[in-house]
Design brief:
This protein is of the alpha+beta class and about 1000 residues long. It contains 36 helices and 20 strands. Strands 4, 6, 7, 9, 12, 13 and 15 form a seven-stranded antiparallel β-sheet that branches. Strands 5-8-14-10-11 form a five-stranded antiparallel β-sheet. A two-stranded antiparallel sheet has the order 1-2.
Length: about 1000
């Protein structure tokens, strides 16, 4: 064991907690003082350094300056630092009065003693390579269940403090269940554990809970806080985006106990791995979880700079436990991170393909993530479709002969259709219809929801047998049209025609292509679906309307058309033209030819190119009756495939592209391009990269560097946070900052031991968690004695367990579990629990109204709740869940009246209380005492006391009397939520016990982990 650590332990033996005598240790005693009071002006930040003095470096602090030294080792009386801190002159005293942080007498005494002892410096403790300390020896060896206990007990014995007694079995099981799964234990688990007296009963329960699929959900709640996971963009309109597959990846990774080094590599660079799997690509969604803006007025360059800085802050906080973001505008004031380090780190992410403006919340790269069932069905559909398409393209003598005949018919028919030019085209909905050169009509301007076009066409035929409407793509239309809907589609419902004022009746309507359930025939039959063309938008199509009775024409006449488009959503025609024919034989799609086909068939066959021959063959296959059944099968399979693909959830993909240029931005100013161009590099004071060639480093190099054995921060950061999850606070309490401004660890040897053990055992997360919860330190009672409360009020010595209010998601999960409503399936889209009406009224671009989910989705666990950054679900917000705009390493815990109001009035909790009451009445027995005992065991895992029995009986009796006199009030209470009221239960009794259940769910004990 290093001499400093041995001395540290000796000091603890002699002096009470928080008091030290004897030799001063720089990291423990001096660095916190200098960091808090001096480094702002005399630290790493060169741009704000005064007098060119660095107190964070010994060589600089000891050098001679005009005949004197700021620090003279062993001689405080000859040290300018001592003279300045003792000065009473406002012009010379340090720290300056305007700094607002004067030194305390105890701090001055400590600094003087440190100089007297030689003013030795140390590298900051978190930046020193971690080595595994020897396990300390203890007197009470029987108390040591895991190595953790040896470190904790050694300190306690030095302090003369005894550990607390073990928690009782019910409390211990509830603690363990909430800590490992986020859910309360079931009554069956409580009974089995209480009755199991075998020596390994506790370990079996630990293993059972670690193997639960809910373990991954509980740990994911914390990880999602760190990586600021949310379902929305975060800026401006805060539009929805799809990233839920990443959340499911995290849950599965923890459940599968994926080694943390592999987990890290996949998060940062899963897309860069050779032959990356879908899972690894999903993992790299981490790089896209930053806030983004879809507001059209933002400066893309500015927001790309924001996104870049966000990734540096988050990655530095998540893996390095460092406030790296402080170096965005200047060198870090307290830690050795420079501004160049910041932007060189940002350069690792310069290859992420993205835009500054995320138009309509649509990102560049969307990665489909099908479920196993969807993957299986899509594979089967692809196989079937391939077989059908092979058949569709197969040549047979019969088809080849029909193809020859069809080409001849097409050539014969090419001159039978005469193009006509409207003299008038009007939209009653307000669109602008312009007759183009060549006779086509183009719609522009206003795009009404529904529309009616009135067209006037002069005719000079001898006989009118048919009208052909050709719809055409155009570059000015959405998706090139030919419709005006966003996807280029249209829906035509009816075409009314008159000749010189006399109505014309149609015999049939046939189209070259029709969307499923939107046939061209519907224009004639009046079917409500009308004619549409998905998925074949962006192409020309024709609709032929044959007259029921051809009209003989002896003089010039006028054809007037009224074209009805009633689908809504602006599904109107965008670009179209008309043809008429005198030939009754042309009333078949076989005779319909666009300009391209006409041009081809007019050529002699030997002069047609291979591409033109293929065009004709493709058109023939799409029309011939010989392939009608094959086309039907093809369309059915293609449509089913599209339905399945549309149901597949997507996530934001990290897609590598040519890296953007990254410059150091002076003072963080995105408009200042004067800074140095930088390439990916690691912070200069940390271990270098293990890269042999001179190529540009990438995110995969970054991930491997983070997990390198030489990196001192990652393992310390992660185990320190795990310790917080199971003991209430970190060994270093500043879990978000292990730098100079962070807290000195209460047990530095333990932190290093855990970090090295974690690293040397394949980064096994479950292993280190099991070690923690198997320890006697973990199993202690959380109830402090008065002596222990006075001696160690903040539980720095861990002579007891800590107690705290459950996280927001767990409070809701607990209520749902107790009520029997909880749906515990894993994964899937984010869900919408009940929420107050109008809560989203201020959300714009677009305006939205919250729609709570129906059915099972309403009762999913809190980890699956839709995370709206700017309007976080109010129940989560009330219990201190973060908006996840930035990395959150520790949730604060408040205690407010609003929380009690949420538990009493939020529809989720009222409904849960109602269903809890149903369980009590159905299963709890026939008398009050048995029912209350059932309720207490279900909600609190114990039996009620006599006083609790008395108080709860008063509550039930008083509400029974009230509801007996006001049945309407009982009915209103029982209508809360969408879950049906069970049949055969007395409504007055159910309402009375619902009041009791609301009380139980609001108990401090019900929402607290002891």
């Amino acid at each position: 064991m290093p001499a400093v650590r041995i001395l540290f332990l000796i000091v603890l033996i002699v002096f009470p907690i928080g008091l030290f005598a004897g030799e001063i240790e720089f990291n423990r005693d001096i660095r916190p003082i200098l960091s808090d009071k001096c480094f702002a002006c005399h630290g790493p930040d060169s741009s704000h350094r005064e007098a060119e003095l660095r107190l964070d470096e010994r060589e600089n602090a000891l050098q001679e300056r005009d005949g004197h030294r700021v620090i003279t080792p062993g001689k405080p009386g000859m040290s300018e630092l001592v003279a300045r801190i003792l000065s009473t002159d406002e012009l010379t005293v340090m720290p300056p009065p305007e700094h607002g942080k004067p030194l305390t007498p105890e701090e001055i005494k400590t600094l003087k003693q440190w100089i007297a002892e030689g003013a030795e410096y140390q590298q900051h403790w978190s930046f020193i390579a971690s080595t595994r300390p020897e396990l300390p020896t203890v007197t009470n060896q029987s108390w040591v269940k895991t190595p953790i206990d040896a470190f904790i007990l050694h300190r306690l014995e030095a302090e003369g403090i005894q550990p607390s007694a073990p928690a009782n079995r019910q409390t211990l099981l509830r603690r363990l269940s909430f800590d490992l799964t986020g859910l309360p234990p079931t009554p069956a688990q409580v009974e089995a554990f209480t009755n199991d007296q075998s020596p390994d009963a506790y370990e079996k329960m630990v293993d059972e809970l670690l193997a639960s699929p809910h373990y991954g959900e509980r740990l994911a709640i914390y990880w999602l806080d760190l990586v600021r996971y949310a379902d929305t963009l975060g800026y401006h309109g805060d539009q929805v985006r799809s990233v839920s597959p990443y959340r499911d990846y995290v849950i599965n990774a923890f459940n599968d106990n994926k080694p943390f080094d592999q987990f890290t590599i996949e998060n940062l660079a899963g897309d860069l791995l050779p032959e990356a799997s879908l899972e690894q690509k999903v993992a790299s969604t981490y790089n896209r979880l930053n806030r983004a803006s879809g507001e059209g007025g933002v400066q893309p360059k500015e927001y790309l700079a924001k996104y870049s800085a966000d990734r540096v802050r988050t990655t530095g906080a998540v893996w390095l436990g460092s406030t790296f973001g402080c170096a965005e505008c200047h060198d870090h004031k307290f830690d050795p991170f420079t501004t160049k380090d910041f932007y060189s780190f940002a350069a690792f992410f310069a290859d992420v393909k993205e835009q500054g403006i995320v138009s309509g919340a649509k990102h560049i790269a969307q990665l489909p993530v099908p479920t196993d069932a969807q993957s299986k069905e899509l594979n089967e559909l692809s196989i079937q479709l391939a077989a059908v398409l092979t058949e569709f393209d197969r040549h047979t003598p019969e088809r080849d002969q029909a193809f020859v005949i069809w080409k001849q018919e097409l050539a014969n028919a090419a001159n039978q259709w005469v193009p006509v030019t409207p003299t008038q085209a009007v939209s009653t909905g307000g669109a602008t219809l312009t007759v183009q050169e060549g006779g086509s009509v183009l719609a522009s301007g206003k795009n009404p929801d529904k529309d009616l076009y009135e067209i006037v066409i002069p005719l000079t035929l001898k006989k009118l047998c048919g009208l052909r409407l050709e719809i055409l793509p155009h570059d000015l239309l959405p998706a090139k049209g030919p419709g005006r809907a966003g996807n280029g589609n249209l829906v035509l419902h009816k075409v009314e025609a008159t000749l010189n004022g006399k109505p014309v009746e149609w015999k049939s309507g046939v189209a070259t292509h029709s969307q499923v359930n939107h046939s061209g025939e519907y224009v004639v039959s009046g079917h409500k679906n009308g004619w549409a063309i998905l998925p074949e938008t962006g192409k020309a199509h024709s609709l032929l309307l044959q007259l029921k009775t051809p009209v003989e024409v002896s003089e010039a006449i006028t054809l007037k058309l009224r074209m009805h488009q009633n689908h809504g959503g602006a599904h109107s025609l965008g670009h179209f033209r008309f043809y008429v024919t005198e030939s009754a034989e042309q009333a078949s799609p076989q005779s319909l030819a666009n300009d391209q086909l006409v041009a081809i068939v007019k050529k002699p066959e030997p002069e047609r190119s291979d591409a033109e021959q293929q065009t004709l063959w493709n058109e023939f296959r799409s029309r011939t009756p010989l392939l009608a059944e094959v086309r039907k099968q093809r369309d059915m399979l293609q449509n089913r495939k599209k339905v399945v693909e549309a149901a597949v959830v997507t996530t934001l993909a990290t897609e590598a592209t040519q890296p953007r240029e990254i410059r150091v931005l002076p003072r963080g100013n995105w408009m200042d391009d004067s800074g140095q161009v930088v390439t990916p590099q690691f912070p200069g004071f940390m271990p270098p990269a293990d890269v042999k060639d001179d190529r540009r480093l990438n995110r995969l190099d970054l991930a491997r560097w983070l997990m390198n054995d030489e990196n001192p921060l990652v393992a310390r950061t992660f185990v320190n946070r795990l310790w917080m999850l199971y003991f209430g606070h970190g060994i270093s309490r500043s879990v978000d900052d292990l730098g100079s401004q962070g807290s000195w660890p209460t047990h530095p040897e333990l932190l290093d031991w855990l970090a090295v053990d974690f690293r040397e055992n394949n980064w096994d997360i479950k292993r280190v968690i099991k070690m923690m919860v198997m320890s006697n330190t973990y199993r202690q009672s959380s109830k402090p004695s008065s002596e222990l409360r006075a001696r160690d009020p903040y539980n720095k010595l861990y002579a007891r367990q800590s107690r705290w209010r459950l996280e927001a998601e767990m409070i809701r999960d607990n209520a749902l579990a107790v009520s029997g409503l909880l749906v515990d399936e894993l994964g899937g889209k984010s869900v919408m629990p009940y929420q107050p009406a109008g809560y989203w009224s201020q959300l714009n671009f677009p305006k939205r109204s919250y729609q709570a989910d129906k059915g099972n989705a309403q009762y999913r666990r809190g980890v699956y709740t839709h995370w709206q950054r700017t309007f976080l679900h109010p129940s989560l917000l009330a219990f201190d869940a973060p908006a996840r705009e930035e990395c959150t390493a520790r949730r604060e815990r408040s205690n407010t009246p609003i929380q009690a109001l949420v538990l009493l009035n939020d529809p989720t909790y009222v409904e849960a209380a109602r269903k809890f009451a149903e369980r009590i009445l159905k299963v709890g027995g026939s008398n009050f005492e048995s029912r209350l005992e059932f309720a207490w065991q279900l909600a609190l895992s114990r039996t009620p006391t006599n006083e609790e029995n008395r108080l709860m009986k008063e509550i039930v009796d008083s509400h029974r009397e009230f509801y007996s006199q006001d049945a309407a009030a009982a009915g209103q209470l029982l209508r809360s939520g969408i879950a049906p009221v069970v049949a055969g239960v007395d409504r007055i009794e159910l309402a009375s016990w619902t009041a009791a259940a609301r009380t139980i769910l609001n108990l401090h004990e019900a929402i607290t982990r002891y």
